[in-house]
Design goal:
By secondary structure, the chain is an all-alpha fold. The chain is built from one helix and no strands.
Length: 69
């Protein structure tokens, strides 16, 4: 084995290791993004439900006032 071959092989191995780490980071970011999206979707759904309940209560109160007349 020549010195140039040894260093070339080491560079290839380091490059491959770097690609593996990059793929792992990419997957980690993808999973974190998916989790954030789910959390945001849940927060939006919860806010919509809460707003619906508030609106429903106000509608019921108005209906009671109108129906008493």
């Amino acid at each position: 084995m020549q010195i140039g071959d040894k260093y070339g092989t080491q560079r290839v191995q380091k490059c491959q290791q770097g690609l593996i780490v990059a793929k792992q980071l990419k997957e980690g970011f993808r999973l974190a993004n998916d989790n954030n999206k789910k959390i945001k979707d849940e927060a939006i759904a919860r806010a919509v439900d809460e707003q619906y309940l508030v609106n429903r209560q106000e509608i019921d109160e108005i209906y009671l006032k109108v129906s008493d007349r």
